[in-house]
Amino acid sequence: MSAPASSEFQFENEIKWEDLGNGVQRQVFGYDDKLMLLKVKFEKGAIGAMHSHPHSQATYIESGVFEMTIGNEVKIIKQGDGYYVPPHVVHGVTCLEPGMLVDAFSPVREDFL
Predict the structure, then answer these.
(1) Is the per-residue pLDDT at 2 higher than 70?
(2) Is the Cβ–Cβ distance between 92 and 48 less than 8 Å?
(3) How far apart are CA 5 and CA 66, in angstroms?
């Protein structure tokens, strides 16, 4: 059974932010069973804990500065940068300056719906 699809248009001011706690919030945009787009807002010092998932992930840094770990590699990334995480690779982020990540997942993260 496939996940439901989002509406064809999403308007930022109509999408609720989900408070994930500890200075992290998520806003889910368009999705179907193959793809999902979302924004994640971080306060300074907020941590996206180390984790892995079976999805491919590509992320664009809309704003802020982050220390990003993918596997055994750690880099400082900032506004305008991006990263890719292959399926099942452990990764996590620490926010150094308040910012926003724009995440794309394939397939959809049904656990976010």
Answers:
(1) no
(2) yes
(3) 31
